[in-house]
Amino acid sequence: MLRDITIGQYFPGKSVLHRLDPRVKIVLTLAFIVMLFIASNPIGLLVGILFLVLTYGISRIPPIMILKSLKPVLPIILFTSILNMFFIEGTPLFQWWILKITLEGVTTAIVMSIRILCLIAGTSLLTYTTSPIALTDGIERLCSPLNRLKLPVHELAMMMTIALRFIPTLIEETDKIMSAQKARGADLETGGLMQRAKALIPILIPLFVSAFRRADELAVAMECRCYRGGEGRTRMKQLKIQMYDIWCSVFVGLCIAAVIFINLFAPVVLHM
Amino acid sequence: MIAIKTEDLTYVYSAGTPFEKTAIDHINLEIEQGEFVGVIGHTGSGKSTLIQHFNGLLKPTSGRILINGVDLWAKETKIRDYRFKVGLVFQYPEYQLFEETVYKDIAFGPANMGLSPAEIDERVREAAEFVGLKPHHMQKSPFELSGGQKRRVAIAGVLAMNPEILVLDEPTAGLDPKGRDRILGQIKQYHKARGTTILLVSHSMEDIARYAHKVLVLNHSGVAMYDDVAAVFSRDKEIIQMGLSVPQITRIFSRLRDRGYPVSESVYTMDYAKQELLSLLSGKEG
Amino acid sequence: MPNIISAEKVRFGYQKENNEFNLVLKDISLEIPQGQFLAVLGHNGSGKSTFAKHLNAILLPQGGTVTVCGLNTADEDKLYDIRQQVGMVFQNPDNQIVATIVEEDVAFGPENMGVEPSEIRTRVDEALKDVGMDEYKTHAPHQLSGGQKQRIAIAGIIAMRPRCIVLDEPTAMLDPRGRSEVISTVKRLNSELGITVVLITHYMEEAAQCDRVVVMNDGEVLLDDTPRRVFSHVEQLKSVGLDVPQATELCWQLRKNGFDLPDDILTEDECVEAISALLEAKK
Question: What ipTM describes this predicted complex?
């Protein structure tokens, strides 16, 4: 059933990572990504892996969740690994007809795969430990300087919040409309591509009509609650940088410093 | 003949997840053909889940469901045929309208049945007549109509399939008294004319008392009562304990009886209440 | 008591597709005193919802004036003052909740008004307590029942500290349990916080619990009196497509048959007493 789908990947908890200011968390996630890409050395990547092990441990997100978030990117990783293995020139390890696997190719493939996996695991951790609303809030406040460039930051954030709010409602509605049309004999499961596309019309039209009606009613309800855009608006929840926000930032800074240090002084094994 | 029979019908939502919930639990039920049954039970008692089994929209987790004696989920039955045999009108059915014209929308079901254009035309006109839609409505867009009219178009869309069993889930929700009486009156008329078995889900005990012959009371995912209207409403104390109510008129008579007046214990409609009191009052006079 | 809302000869209509002009409100005049619990009854299309939307300047009268707390609703500069004073709750609870967390939604109004963050916190907590939903403050709205959602919507309004709440068929989409939750919440807000309530409905049981009932029909005020007096006009109510409580109807039926019963029976208790008295007299 459609309504079994959960929205967002938020995994409620009370760890330090959950309590971090969303702005800090977003910035630190970006810093982590930078760290992964400046690590030109397997030892540097090891720092990234250790960092992930530590943060997942603190967040108490079940490790099975990491596998879940990695599953969708596996085909991409496999594909790029194969390309890397066969097309990077260097010392051949294995040769058959015109296919050739090189040592450099294999190492690049491994390093790249680890990098992408770390990247996905790291960004997933952000969405696992931050509720969608906090995330939107963080993005809105981080982007607020863009207001001066006449970018409608508040409006975009409001749209995101409303979308998050209405996704479960519309999923439930789709479920209902599908049942109602099936009860009138609509056949959604068989037939060719064209037939199936046509069979969606009785679902999509009522869904759109209802979405517009809801939007209309919501707009009036928001007006009744004095909504007039972002100007002059206050927020109940003030974001405040706490001590642990600072400590976490310092820690990430140290990790990046370590990676740079390793880059400079550890023996360079690879060229990428 | 038995129109609907269930044997230990059980349905579990989200089985195997932390959200697992048994919506209906070992339901055994036999509904005679041609019956007009009112279905009551508070939200979460399993009403919606139960009725979605009658036309095969939901597949039982365990147990069986038989329509006219045939197991819906036996290998050889084609489940889609039962969508037409058992017409199901959902809550707020006007939200499922989608065609350009009222006519085409009502024709959606019959067209899915694969009927000939002539047959479809006949069915659409008959169904429209039952719900009181005029010929000039037929070429209008359903979205131009008033709320009550849209609701009647949606009901006609199910009637046009000529179902042997008609299930309506709160067909009058959100309507005013006039719109409510109109739709229920039309359903009653349809029942009389066609002899269709009807199941009417409603929160209004007054409506159930006025239109149904039998009442099915669901509570805690199971059948609490299934009996004649009079018999069910005479067990008013049990019903109130389930968080449901009985018609106000029934409560008034129950209290009069408690005070020792010789009034019948199965008063549930206004007409009957009036007759009962009038005969009592004039009898004493004479 | 001073009037919180006064409508004077309010006229409103719109152009239909066939160019006919459809007059929805025909010179309606109505005064609502501070602290009153008023029900507006009427069938669909009687103009009751259109009238409600005039009370906080969602719609503006095409003729006549609406004055709210001394402010003319046509005064654009005072728009947000008016909307803060007169809050509005609608029929579909799903379509008026903005945020994904209950307390964030209740905070929405005060946030728009630019209230201080610490003050918003206090107001949100109080509002949620007032509607009996404080234990749900971190829930997601879509996990709640219809009655609970509607109470959240009410909390979102009272967090704006209005003097009046207009509820436009707030119970039409709810089951009986949700309906009584909402009505008892609204009654408490009226009696304990002194908030003026305008309840638009077509359920006569709800109207029977109010201080005053206005019956609208075809854009006009048909009856305007206490529930007791209004429901004594059984025939007139039926003629405009409305119901009366069964207790009232039963006594009316008996009176029509020549029995002597009071004509202002409203509740079950009164009905039982009156009929008992009648049966005693005949003994």
Answer: 0.91
